[in-house]
Amino acid sequence: MAHLPAQTTQTARRRGALALTGAAGALMLLHYAGLLPAALHRLPPERVPDLAVWLDALFNFVKDDLGLLALTRWLTEPLQWMLDVTANLLFGKRRWPGIGPIPWTAIAAAATVLGYHLGGWKLAALAGGTFAWTALVGQWDIAMQTMSVLVIAAPAAFAIGLLLGIAAWKYAWIDRALKPILSVLQTLPFFTYLLPAVIFFKVGPTAGAVATTIYAIPPMILMTTLGLQKVSPEIVEAGQMSGCTRLQLLRHVYLPAARTEILVGINQVIMLCLAMVVLTAFIGMPGLGAKLLAMMGSFKLGRSFEIGVTIVLLAVTLDRMSKAWVARQPMHHERGTPFWRRHFALLAGLGLFVLFCIVAQFVDLAAEIGRRQSLSMGKEIDTAIKAFLNIGWVKATTGFLRAFLNVQVLIPFRNCLLWIPTPAFILLIAAFAWWLGGRRQAVIAGLFFALVALSGWWDRSVITLYSVISAVALAMLIGLPVAVLAARSARWSNRVLLICDTAQTFPSFVYLIPAIMLFGITDIAVIFSILIFAMVPLVRYTIEGLRTVPPEVMEAADMSGATRWQKLVKVQLPLALPTMAVGFNQAIMFAFFMVIIAAFIGTQDLGQELQRTLAGTDLGKNFVLGICVSLMALTFDLTILNWAAARKRQLGLG
Amino acid sequence: MAANPPVIAARNVWKIFGKAPEAYLRSLPAGRSFDEIRADGYIAGVRDVSITVGRGEMLVIMGLSGSGKSTLVRCFSRLHDITGGTIEVDGTDIGSLSERALIDLRRSKMGMVFQSFGLLPHRTVLDNVAFPLEMRGQDRHARRERALEVIRLVGLEGREDYFPRELSGGQQQRVGIARSLAIEPDIWFLDEPFSALDPLIRREMQNEFLRLQKMLHKTIVFITHDFDEALRLADRIAIMKDGAIEQCATPDQIVLNPATEYVRKFTEDIDKARVVHAGTLADPALRAEGAAVDADASVHDLARLLIQDQRSTIPVERAGRPVGAIRRDEALGILVGAR
Predict the structure, then answer these.
(1) In terms of domains, do B313 and B247 share one?
(2) Total domains, chain A
(3) What is the Cα–Cα distance from A543 to A499, expressed in whole angstroms?
(4) What pLDDT, in 10s, does the model give residues B261-275?
(5) Where would you tag: which of A98, A304, A499, B63 has the fewest CB atoms within 10 A of its CB?
(6) Average pLDDT over residues B145-164
(7) Tens-place pLDDT, residues A137-187
(8) How confident is the model at residue A468 (pLDDT cuts 50, 70, 90)?
């Protein structure tokens, strides 16, 4: 394909896509005329292969006959032990070593010093402020419950990811084996991580830690491999000529030289761990997530809001600190610098930590802030929010939006999607893939959606897809103009990008809070939460795409006498399109992720069914549902990313 | 030099990149050109090279980018495994060495300097220089002593605790040089060591390098794409093109008698008077009367004498011994740049 001239390929693709669309249209016409046999509209239930049962049998075989359960239960012991230790230290669970809980002041002081060491006063204030806030609003214990899992899961994910990354870099066959697994893992909805974790590692923190770890491993593998591949050959040769053995070469040359990528991997591991550890609330992991879930469930908006702020602050702090670590370069000290100056941060951190530990022995408030003393304003905020929502025009706006979107747009759209016969739907998806990526992509897309149809969950899959498509479409309607406007000036671009960067670090769960606040527990809230979540990458990549159009090209357009609008439409957008497509793709991926979480609000899609499986031990069904979501997401992921890469090559943008 | 066995002896060395290079080389008909090999889907990095490097000699390998010079030097140090032929270092076939033995060879005998320095970014100057010593397991105290010694040798004292990114390019390459000298190697490979530096610094580093070589007397393989640099430093120059050596001779010989058209083009713009020495021009069969000139003087050094002296032949001496005589009009021809 690549050897054909671009023009021919394009025509061939358009022809293929048109043919498939025509076939789909014919099917739909038949259906409209009532001539389509029912079996062609939907796969008859009796024809649906019982995948769940087969999978269950397979799982049971692996679990019991191959002894996997025994193995994992055996692994649970040390994991449980480690979690008990951190639980004791952080929030005083009665377990060995029995010295906790560490006073909040000591932890906040140590975090402040660490922040200062990594990024100066600003970061110190952020770190100290976050922990102080958490303690002051009386969420210290639940936050530490979350952290106690995080401090085990993140290092575990780092270590496993690093080792697998090294293995994948060293042996091509491991790389080939891992690649497809990783892309499936990255699109698999998180509920699918949760149930196996519960079955194999008991309910509670252990399962939470395992699910969190597994969820965070893929980016660490990718970043490690990437970093090791990027090490300059000269540095490697210098190591070889210095007489390094293979192990020495890895330890002293490769890994330190790949420092930046590995640290970026650590950053991603921490952020994903935080996002996931909050979600483990769904399998009964206590902590911030569980509290938030409970508060939202009982519509206590004030407390939800406070917990949301805590989660967001924690996320931003962890993100900024680990990013500062990435940017931090080694600096030399002048000859003769005394020991205490060289290790100032370490000594100050330790000193303050010990100091506050001692102080806490005498001052109760420094050790723990109880319910009574906390400054939580949950009730007041709650009343304020509800009062605000009851103001006439606010109520009218949200009410109108709700009614209009529901009645005029969303429900008709959903019914339309549900009306389309299954084969026609598959053909349309394949046509889309053909148009963007050629025949190979079309075959893959058709195959993936055919599998979804075979799973027997077609209607729910279509509803899932409907939520995703409508949310992303709305996000584009709002996000694209914002991005285009912001991209006009450097200052606004930077501001909006900063907001996007920050918003991207928020664990997805908190996006539900504003949605529920504004629209209550309704369908619109689901769409709205997906919409804001998906808007972030859309805006971000659009700005980046527009801003990175080479200045010479823009100057050339100016000199050709183009107006602003002409420049935007004829120059900037075409050049930015591949980058924007990456953002669009990410928006879809985010939407697939969010739609599952939003099941909590109450939807009729795959997420809802998935959530239901969590209550039981229905591993087979859980997997079938998870794979359905994954297949749909992968179809878009493969098609769009392929197109973006090919288009970038065509434009010579690298 | 001829009495000593060579330090590096390469015989019919081939390095081919591609899918199945060994099998391809076995089936390769003699005399296949670089472009024909490329048409077969293979890249000939090194094509049938035979060359020796004597003890204490400085061989400069010169060629444009892609001519295979860097590949050749990586074959000498077995950073690349060769596809055909043999390379002996001090009489040992390095192709047959086990990984362990190869590592030992590098730890005791070889040092290498790289074009973009190849410094480890997370280590200080001191730790970079001490790196090869650390790898061979020397204790901390001994390697610190030795590292400080070489750092002083390259003129970086006082910068021991700096990190590479805190240094200028020239300083970074001094670190690279110090590192390559830390283990006191016999053989010193330098892969375009000064190409990444700006011209003024390059000149300074060349002088520095000549100073070091006067003290250390290493066996050197030096790679460059800069013909002036080659002429300035080399005992012998090997000019490479498309993986093969076009000519390998002393600078004088290359300038006076280019073996191929390709070499001649290189020498065209060179001021030959600065390169050719009296010793090379001298005809050993010829004897002449009067005051003699030194064999190591270049024609350019003798310019005034050549113009003023009326003798048709002028005797040449090396260390007080007559080695022959030069014809004045031949030398004058070189001086005025006649072809």
Answers:
(1) no
(2) 4
(3) 12
(4) 999 988 888 888 888
(5) A98
(6) 92
(7) 989 999 999 999 999 999 999 999 999 999 999 999 999 999 999 988 888
(8) very high
Is residue A600 over pLDDT 80? no
* pLDDT exceeds cutoff 80 at B339: no
* Res A369 pLDDT > 50: yes
Q: Which among B228, B250, B270 is the end of a domain?
A: B270
- Does residue A530 sit in the same domain as residue A428? no
pLDDT of residue B3: 53
Q: Is A245 on the interface with B (CB under 8 A)?
A: yes
Indicate yes or no: CB of A243 within 8 angstroms of CB of B120. no
B266/B284 same-domain check: no
A240 vs chain B: nearest CA distance in angstroms? 8
The kind and range of the H/E element at B46 are: strand B43-53
Task: Answer with the one of B220, B237, B270 that is the final residue of a domain.
Answer: B270
Nearest CA in chain A to B127: A252
CATH number at residue A507: 1.10.3720.10
Q: Which residues contact A429 (CB under 8 A, 6 or more apart)?
A: A445, A446, A449, A635
Q: Is the confidence at residue A587, as pLDDT, over 80? A: yes
- A438 and A463 share a domain? no
Q: Is residue A381 part of a domain?
A: no
Residue of A nearest to B79 (CA): A237
Q: How far is A124 from chain B (nearest CA, A)?
A: 25
- Chain A residues near residue B121 by CB distance under 8 angstroms: 256-257, 259
Mean pLDDT of A7-29: 86
Contact by Cβ (8 Å): B264, B227: no
Domain that holds residue A162: 147-287
Shared-domain flag, residues B229 and B153? yes
B22 belongs to a structural domain = no
B189 belongs to a structural domain: yes
Q: Tell if the CB–CB gap between A234 and B114 is shorter than 8 Å.
A: yes
A3, pLDDT greater than 50? no
Residue B70: pLDDT above 90? yes
Q: How far is A401 from chain B (nearest CA, A)?
A: 57
d(CA A282, CA A608): 12
**A77: how many CB neighbours lie within 10 A of its CB?**
10
Each residue of B179-194: pLDDT tens digit? 999 999 999 999 999 9
Q: Which amino acid is at B5?
A: P
CA B71 – CA B68 distance, rounded (Å): 5
Report residue B198 as tokens.
């700006």
Residues A444 and A463 in one domain: no
Q: Min CA distance, B90 vs chain A (Å)?
A: 17
Tokens matching residue A377: 């304003």
Say if A327 is an interface residue toward chain B (CB within 8 Å). no
Nearest to A221 by CA among A175, A152, A189, A254: A175
Quick one: A464 and A603 in the same domain? yes
Please state, in angstroms and rounded to a whole number, the distance separating the CA atoms of residues A156 and A164.
12
Q: How many domains does chain B have?
A: 2
